[in-house]
Design a protein that fits this description.
Blueprint (H helix, E strand, L loop, with lengths): L2 E5 L2 E3 L5 E8 L9 E6 L6 E7 L4 E4 L7 E6 L4 E6 L8 E9 L10 E4 L3 E5 L1
Parallel strand pairs: 2-11
Antiparallel strand pairs: 1-3, 3-8, 4-5, 4-9, 5-6, 7-8, 9-10, 9-11
Length: 124
Amino acid sequence: HVQLVESGGGSVQAGGSLRLSCAVSGYTFGGNSMLAWFRQAPGKEREGVAALSPGFGATVYADSVKGRFTISQDRARNTMYLQMDKLKPEDTAMYYCAADLRRGGWLSGDGYNYWGQGTQVTVS
């Protein structure tokens, strides 16, 4: 049984930082595994933010967060992180972690098999 649990969301002023965590159980980091962060703001479509290939260490970012967000992993803890710096009001959204890409691009929301419940980030 695969379970993803996000934490670390909250309210912050513009220019501030937050670090999101995604604790993963039942899914092995490595090989062809894929992990990603998505977000969805009210009235907007879900957006892929960043993705990570744990086995190869490769990452990809949406243009809107490049240079400000960093995705990383801790294999010993089976946890993925999203360090968010220089936050902007437009970063306000519910953030979700996802695992196990089955089809499509790394930031394709339709391709991931497992999802967390989300953690809210509000930037004012």
